[in-house]
Amino acid sequence: MSNKTFYITTPIYYVNDVPHIGHAYTTVAADVLARYKRLKGYDVFFLTGTDEHGQKVEKAAKDRGKTPKEHADLMVDNFKNLWKTLNITNNAFIRTTDDEHKKVVREILQKLRDKGEIEKRSYQGLYCTPCERFWTDKDVVNGNCPDCKRPVEHIEEENYFFLMSKYQDRLVKYIEENQGYILPEMRKNEVLGFLKNRTLGDLCISRPKARLAWGIPLPFDENYTTYVWFDALLNYYSATKYLAPSDIEWWPPDHHFIGKDILTTHAVYWSTMLMALDMDLPKNIFAHGWWTVDGQKMSKSLGNVVDPNEIIEKYGVDAFRYFLLREVPFGLDGDFSINALKGRINGELANELGNLLSRTIALIVKNKKEGFPKRDDTKYISVPDTPTFFSEGLSEWSNTFLKSFDFFMGKLQFYHAIGHVVGAIKGWNKYVQETAPWAEKDHDKISNTLYTLAEGLRIIAVYLYPFMPSTAEKIWQQLGIEKDISKIDFDEEVKWGKDISGLKVKKGEILFPKVEAL
Ligand code: ME8
After folding, report:
1. pLDDT recorded at residue 390
2. pLDDT tens, 160-192?
3. Which residue is closest in CA terms to ligand 1's atom 24?
């Protein structure tokens, strides 16, 4: 075990519906970072899971004639299977119906109650059942919920409140003093704007059992169940108590990856809950953008919800993973269309990457049937044919390249990190063109060029690994490298100048067959 640890989470998804491209997006992004960090020598705890309590799930189960638990048990496999198909390397999968999770939630509720952070009050307000939240008169638009636009009900009842309002100033200060706490910057400003322009209320964290039976009962009043968000947010903590290796202190998390739809619950509810518990706040909450499909909001009624399984079956896992992080800078909204996906496949993946591999392998097979000769440093290290686009020489190039790549990954700029690698792939293709080994007569020169290409591809595969793990593996296999790429030391393997003498390349399948454009 190393002493560097890295804890990353995705939201826990509701089991009222099947997973779609939006859920896949957050989970793939977290997977990319988790894979990268592992190769960088970190002990990684990557958590995802499902949010199984609450009215939404209760209603979905009722519509299907099942108990909520039966329903959740069926639905949870849709997520687990999709993560398997997508090659997601989560270390744990939490379900809020796990007994251990429920126990932690009850302990925390009791702790907050004992500390005087939870109070019972009589309350009246406008309640939106589908959204499971109260609104004020000011929020409601013509009697309808401002979020889902459905009618709200007037409700009067006694409930328990978490005294969130008293943390308002402390939270503002915390966000201002910890620049990287909420990212991207525009989301941080949004939260600060929200906190500075209104008086934060206290948070109603209970529902009478008669109205919501499908939830965790409050330990100090069994007539009530806890608000689904209170239960859900605590997953990030409870998982460290029973799903993570116990010899490591995982708290606080390094990143909570979420969509912008659930920014307030994380930035405000979760942060103040942790403050009340005297616990460290996560190091970062990153709220990414929203995917539309062909320019429209994804919705069941429009029938345009994208099932990742269908896309993967047709176009492959890695093309899909690549597309999600390459199409839009992480943090901004994006639009999914089959046309755009095909464009990425035919362009960067088939024409650039696939082509570079197949021509390199073909040239090596043609010229070096016996594999690479034993490396002669005088010939292979001082590369006279340094590609014109790498003015510093290749060792230097590999060092600078690593620095930029690490910079982009550190800033969660996946789009730029991939762009950087694509730039190199294009450069190597240009290099093949310029050196034209097929027309070369000098054998040493040919060997040199082929070594340079193979070494370039070996390194490119390492950079591609977090994004497209199977593709990276295939590149290494075709180059004849037998090491398991998921277990390497990243920094070591991206250094220029490995001895690859004796490797026997294996011509393999085409990485990305071209797809018919629309
Ligand atoms: O909100 N574009 O669960 P949920 C991008 N259970 N991302 C999207 C998306 C889209 N169109 N649609 C969904 C919940 N997502 C709660 C979370 S966490 C303690 C509890 C992704 O099933 C994005 O990550 O509605 C978003 O935040 C999440 O799915 C919402 O998933």
Report:
1. 52
2. 999 999 999 999 999 999 999 999 999 999 999
3. 259
Whether 286 contacts 258, CB under 8 Å:
yes
Mean model confidence pLDDT for the chain: 92
Task: Output the six-digit token pair for 158.
Answer: 């006694």
What is the distance in A from the centroid of ligand 1 to the CA of 24?
A: 10
Measured by CA distance, the residue closest to atom 9 of ligand 1 is: 22
Residue ranges for the chain with pLDDT beneath 70: 1-2, 369-392, 518
Nearest CA to ligand 1 atom 13: 22
| Among protein residues, the one whose CA lies closest to atom 14 of ligand 1 | 13
Query: For the packed helices 68-85 and 21-39, what is the interaxial angle rounded to 10 degrees?
Result: 50
Please give the number of the atom of ligand 1 that sits closest to the Cα of 14.
Answer: 22
Tokens of 330: 């992480």
The residue whose CB lies within 8 Å of the most ligand 1 atoms, and thus the one to mutate among 9, 10, 12, 13, is 13
DSSP state of 281: P
Domains defined for the chain, CATH in brackets: 338-493 (1.10.730.10)
Please give the model's pTM, rounded to 2 decimal places: 0.94
Rounded to the nearest whole angstrom, what is the distance from the C-alpha of residue 23 to the centroid of ligand 1? 6
Q: How far is the CA of 302 from the centre of ligand 1 (A)?
A: 19
- DSSP assigned state of 499: -
The atom of ligand 1 lying closest to the CA of 297 is 11
Residue 370: what pLDDT?
Answer: 57
Look up residue 378 and give its two tokens. 């005088």
Atom from ligand 1 closest to the CA of residue 262: 27
336 lines ligand 1 (CB under 6 A): no
- Token pair of 135 as six digits: 């609104």
- Is the minimum distance from the CB of 25 to ligand 1 under 6 angstroms? yes
317 lines ligand 1 (CB under 6 A): no
Query: What are the structure tokens assigned to 366, written together?
Result: 């043609």
CA separation for the pair 8, 112 (Å, rounded): 26
Look at residue 518 in the predicted model and tell me its pLDDT.
63
Long-range CB contacts (within 8 A, 24+) of 456-461? 456/424, 456/428, 456/431, 457/356, 457/357, 457/360, 457/428, 458/493, 458/498, 458/500, 459/398, 459/493, 459/494, 459/496, 460/353, 460/421, 460/424, 460/425, 460/428, 461/485
* Cα separation, 242 vs 100, whole angstroms: 7
Query: Rg of the Cα trace of the chain?
Result: 26
Q: What is the pLDDT of residue 387?
A: 52
pLDDT of residue 367: 84
Q: Are 436 and 428 in contact (CB under 8 A)?
A: no
Peptide bond into 252 cis (omega under 30): yes
Per the CB < 8 A criterion, the answer to whether 135 and 128 are in contact is yes
